[in-house]
Each structure stands twice: as C-alpha cells, then as structure tokens.
Amino acid sequence: MAPSRPVLAVRGSEGIYLVNGSPSFTEHASFPRESGKSCKVYAFSKDGKLFAWSNGEKINIVNVADGALLHSFDNPKVVGLEISPKNSVLATWQTYVSGKDGASGTPNLQLYCLKTGKCLRSFIQKKMQGWYPCWSDDECLCARNVNNEVHFFENNTFDTIANKLLLQKVSEFELSPGPPPVKIAVYVPGTKGAPSFVRLYQYPNFGGPQAALGTKSFFKADRVTMLWNKKGTAVLVTASTEVDKTGASYYGEQTLHYIATNGESAVVQLAKNGPIYDVVWNSNSTEFCVVYGFMPAKATVYNLKCDPIFDFGTGPRNAAYYSPQGHILVLAGFGNLRGQMEVWDVKNYKLISKPQASDSTFFAWCPDGEHIVTATCAPRLRVGNGYKIWHYSGTVLHKYDVPPNEELWQVSWQPFLDGVLKAKPIVYQAVAGSLPDPEPKAAQAYRPPALRNKPVTSYNLHEDEPPQSTKPLNTSSEKPMSKTALKNQKKREAKKAAKQEGKSDAVSEPVCEPDHEPDQHSSLNSATVAETSGDPDVDKKIKNLKKKLKAIDQLKEQQASGKTLEINQLEKIQKEDELLKELEDLQLGI
Prior knowledge:
Largest sheet: 5 strands, antiparallel
CATH architecture of the domain at 271-405 and 443-472: 7 Propeller
Distance between the termini: 81 Å
Mean pLDDT: 83
Radius of gyration: 31 Å
C-alpha cells in the first residue's frame, strides 16, 4: 500500500485544523476543526502517526489517519509538547511557578505513558529553553541537563538515574541520531584564561578526557549550536559571541568547527568575512552547506574534509534548506530580505527555479521532497498572514490568506520516517498551476521630475559573484592556461615565426612544447627545455624570477581558499606585475 500524502497542520486565531496535501488542499475530514483562540501548542510524533494538541482545557492525542482519540489528559496550562521517537512517552511542560517564601514550586515537567495514560514521572524544569528530554532513536536512552550535569535514564525507567556525565558546568548537550551506540556532544563554556570546548563521548564511557571520541577547544564563544549529521558520525559547532569587538558586525563574531567521532577536527575556512547565517547537513551525512559573509552573502558546500566542493556565489540569502531526500537545496533570504529563493539540483549543481515569497517568516520542506510551504505568521508579522504551498519548480499550487482581524501562528508538515517517501526525478520546467503569478511585478524606483525624460542609467550596488565548482582538479588532466601563459606563448610563437621568415643563420635552442599547459606561470617553468641567453648571470636572474612568481601563485591559491595572509605575503603578491615585466624584458633579449 502506497503511503498517504503528508498533511499540513495549521494553528491560529481561527482555531486548529489539518489540511490535505497536493492535489486537493482541503481540510482533513478525519480531524474536525477545533475553533477558538485557546490552542497554545501542538506536536506530531516523529513518524507522523500521532497528533497532540492543547486546547486550554485538555491535552488530546489522536491517530492522524482516522482521527480516533487515543488519550486525553487534564492539564490546561501546558505550553510545550513532545512525543518520544517510538510513541511511548508524552512530555509536557508548563510555566514554572515558585512557592511562597521562596520555597520550591510544584513540578512542571510531566512524562505520561501513551499506552496506559499514567504519569510516569514529574520534574522541576524552570527554563523553557531545552525543556524536553532527549531520546535516542530507539528510546533505550533518555537524557536531561540538570544543574550542569547530564542525567541518563534507560528504557524509559525514570525512577532511577542510570548514569551521569559529570563535567564542570556542562551548558548544553546533543544526543546523536541513528542506530546505537549512542554518542553525546557536550559543550563546556570557557572560564577566565581557559577556552571553551566541545567533547564527543560514546555512552556510557565517560571516564575523563581520555575517553572522549573527539574534542575541539576554542576561544570567543558565548554560546554554541551543535548539529549532528544523520548517521551520528560528525558534529558541526557554530560558536558565537554577543559582541564583535572589532565593530565589524552587529551580530557578533561566529566561527564554525567540525568534530568527528573518529577524532578528526578542523576549523571550517570561510571565503568571506561576516556572520554565519545558517549551517545545514545534507541527509546523506557526507556534505554540508554554509551561508555566511556580509551581504550579499556567500553559500558554499563542503565535504567531510571541510574542503569546499561548490560555491553558489553571492546573493541576498540568509538560510539554506536541504530536501528530506537530500537531492534539492533551497537558498533563501527571509526576515529583512525580500524572500528570494534559489532552488538547486544538488547532484548536478544546476539551478531549477528562482521563486520569491515576500514577507515570509517560515519555510519547510514537505517530506515528499516535492512541495514546500512558506508562511507569514504572527507575532513576527501581524499583517498579511497566510501560507502558500509551492512546487519546487516555482509554481504556487495553493494559497490561503487569513481574513482581516485574524492571525496565523503556526504551520508544519506531518513528518514521515526516512525512506518512506522516495525521491522522484527532478523536473526543470514549472509544473502547471491554477493560481496566477505569485509575485506582482516590482514597482519602478522613484525618479525626480527633472530626470523622468532622460535615459535610465542602471548600476549595481554590489557585483555578485557567479556560482562555480571548487573541486580540486585532477593533476593528470589538462588545466586552463592563465592570461600570462597565453601572452608569453604568443610572444614565443611570434619570435619563432620572425626568425623563420628572416632565415636567420643563428641557431637557437628549440622550445619544447609540453603535453599540457600548467596553470598560472607554469609556461615559464624550468621543467621544460628552456631557451638560454648564453650569459650565466642573465639565466640566473630568469631562474630566480620564475621561482618568485611560482611562490606568488601559491600565495594567491591560499588567499582564494580563505587563508589570511601576512602583510609581507600580501606585499609579495603586489609585486607580481613588476616581476612579470622584468622577466619579459629578460626573455625578449634572448
């Protein structure tokens, strides 16, 4: 039996309801709309089979397929819901209220068994950030951060703590996805004179630094974001500071670090200065995309060696989204940008479409890898609330605008387990749709009366860089000739032709043409049989000049890869034209 199409959950001042996916986009018949403004939160299970929501009086859990009510809990103040990966436990959270005279308040984090409906355990969890317990995919392990310690529970038995990870002031942690054994990444902020660090452990081996699978220390980190790949073999750590002491960025400073469970670690070298807006793993776990740099921002795909393999150039973007199957990548500019999206075929790095979703505050891929949803939600924006469902080729298939005086708060797709919905062949032509052009034509810029009858002069505020592959070339294959190599080749050919026409009696050394032209100044390389002047001093000068030019080429390659050069190295690069002119004069005299 083929899997059903994912539904879309919608929550707002009109109530909460489910919308069928393509092609009908009608309300889900098995889930009647619950009207009213009292719905605070909802959640799907990881496999999408269960749907839970709080209506301000009770927590209800239903089966998505037929709408059958499975459980109902009396907990009116809940503002957080989470369902464990195997649908065994429901975690709820409500705002913590302390007791009188500073006494401890009542527990505000409850764990319910979804089979019996009984409360398994209650905890005090004061902060909403990171309130929910973290489960491994098989639910054999559950972890919580308690007073800078990580407590572990096994097999959903919450009466006893099975293990503890004791490190000084553990601030954050992340469990690895994927099959066992389970790994854990922990972050410990730095103290005066000591750096911050992230360590990787394999449960339950926590015997000090020697037991760590990998570690990475760094300064300049007020907070971090840790992101595992789907196979649980590597972590990307974005370290951020609140303030950029150089004054270059309003967003502070960010650095990106790579740590693997095999012990390898590296700093990801970025080719442009500025903030790091987004970091995402491809679902194949072998590459990741980074959006970074002052506007217009760059976007680059890296491999597991942290080498760039494709550069998308620059553009108005601050987010990246891989499709669930990993075959399509969307680069987008939301927030204070105009909502321009670039949809790319990841395998061939070919641009599919460039739709625009103005004023969008939310983006999400449908699990089928064909459709996306963009939405304008309150409280970020209270005007023009609504959502659109697109095909990745750029066609709007469905659009809903919230009526006046109403608000849209949240939308999300029903999730599916990995591998249930397979990737389909990519199409580059826009699919048919019944809706008009989603974006009106942009209004022309204002022109003062004195200029309205004169020709329009266009200019670009920024010169955008084009996309380009950055994979290292095979040394055995032919490389394109540089401008300098072409210029010198033409001069040698012209001089040779002049000698032949003049029937010169002078015998000169033949110039051996190489099988392929090396890059940059390699046409001047002494590896070929070179012409000699007969003067040892001149030949020595030519050899030294070639050596300097080769060193400059290496410095330019390092600079292009993002490495920061020293002042004396930059001065060497600036002398390239002077050295080329000197070499040219010497060679023409041969």
